[in-house]
Amino acid sequence: MKNKNLLVAAVIGLCLSNGNIAFGKGVGVVLSKIPDSNQAALPENKNAVANFEQGTNLYKQGDFKGAEAAFRKAIELEPNFAQAYIALANTLDDQGKPQEAIAQYNKAISLDPQDSEAYFNLGLTLARLNRLEAAIAQYKKALSLEPNYADAHYNLASALYAQGKPAEAIAEYTAAIRLDPKNPAGYNALGNALYAQGNLEEAIAQYKQALSLEPNYADAHYNLASVFYAQGKLTEAIADYTEAIRLDPKHAQAYTGLANAMDDQGKPQEAIAHYKKAISLVPNDAFTYYNLGITLGRQQQREEAIVNLKKARELFQAQENKEMVEQVDQLIQKINTRTN
Predict the structure, then answer these.
(1) CB atoms within 10 A of CB 7
(2) What is the CB neighbour count within 10 angstroms for residue 96?
(3) b or e along 287-321 (b: 16 or more beta carbons within 10 Å of the residue's beta carbon)?
């Protein structure tokens, strides 16, 4: 049996991104923006404020090291500048220094326990470290201070979904959509949670709503295609997988999904080409090697089939997926038996 459940998991972010199941910027989350100076509770020290504003501009330009230096200078001049600690934490997190960022978020919280932004950003960093319970606690603190914080509802939902709690996630995604009804990512993520509960028609409606707001949303096309595929609607699935690839030519999962659908339509050579394209984009996806091996085996390309199945076995072994290792071993044994 092929692995055919390829729906992108709902993950933290304002949009989903193929091939990345980590939390944070890699899947679309932009750390809560550094507040504009007129929104923040700025100190009276003008030099500290000037450095803070310089850091804000550098941060927006993507110069995180320059921003870090400016924020540190602002803190040196005004040690109780809570917003500067949050901004510094953002730059540290962007530079791959989550533990240092956590320390700065906590410092900001100690200075201003009523700042929902600090809790929210701390939650994002904790979630990326897969510390989901701790992240959920921070999102809830942010929401206790600011109940209409749409991003906090959204990211809380994503953390709950990652914990295998789709019903709770649905409630939070729904709240996020109510507060921000023009954000297509909310509908896309809600569709994933509904799909996880087996509510396929409702999931389709959410993906279509996402696409009505953002027609070029590659992952929504991919997810919609995956539901069509689960329903056996191969023509519709192929159309949306193809559209996802057109919009994002590096969408490896879409190539794998398209390959599955093509194979089911009796087009194995096209399927093989799509599996190989997926592997060229993401060379460590065990299930793509596994599916490719099965298709090659059916086409009597036994040697190549075994090569791909062995690669799948190696990856499954590294994942400690004993069930799939056993399945691969059985398939290789069957192919060898037929060959002999």
Answers:
(1) 21
(2) 9
(3) bbbbbbbbbbbeeebbeebbebbebbbebbeeeeb
Residue type, 261: A
Can you say whether the dihedral through the CA atoms of 279, 294, 254, 18 is positive or negative?
negative
Listing DSSP states for 178-223 in one string gives: HH-TT-HHHHHHHHHHHHHTT-HHHHHHHHHHHHHH-TT-HHHHHH
Q: Which residue do the tokens 């109780």 mark?
A: 80
Degrees to nearest 5, angle at CA 287 with 281 and 290: 105
The pTM (predicted TM-score) of the whole model is: 0.84
Distance CA 173, CA 129 (A): 22
- Considering all CA atoms of the chain, what is the largest pairwise distance in Å, rounded to the nearest integer? 84
Each residue of 46-99: pLDDT tens digit? 999 999 999 999 999 999 999 999 999 999 999 999 999 999 999 999 999 999
- Of 14, 26, 210, the closest CA to residue 120 belongs to 14
Per-residue DSSP letter, 68: H
Q: Which among 301, 271, 280, 277 has a CA at the least distance from the CA of 2?
A: 271
Euclidean distance between CA atoms 241 and 252, whole angstroms: 11
CA atoms of 258 and 132, how far apart (whole Å): 33
Q: Measure Cα distances from 339 to 80, 300, 303, 326 in Å.
A: 74, 9, 9, 20
> What span, in angstroms and rounded, lies between the C-alpha atoms of 151 and 157?
10
Instruction: Count Cα atoms within 13 angstroms, Cβ side, for 257.
Output: 34
Is 8's pLDDT higher than 50? no
Residue type, 320: E
Segments making up each domain of the chain, as ranges: 284-340
93-132 pLDDT per residue, tens: 999 999 999 999 999 999 999 999 999 999 999 999 999 9
Of 52, 123, 122, residue with least CA distance to 83: 52
251: which DSSP letter? Answer: -
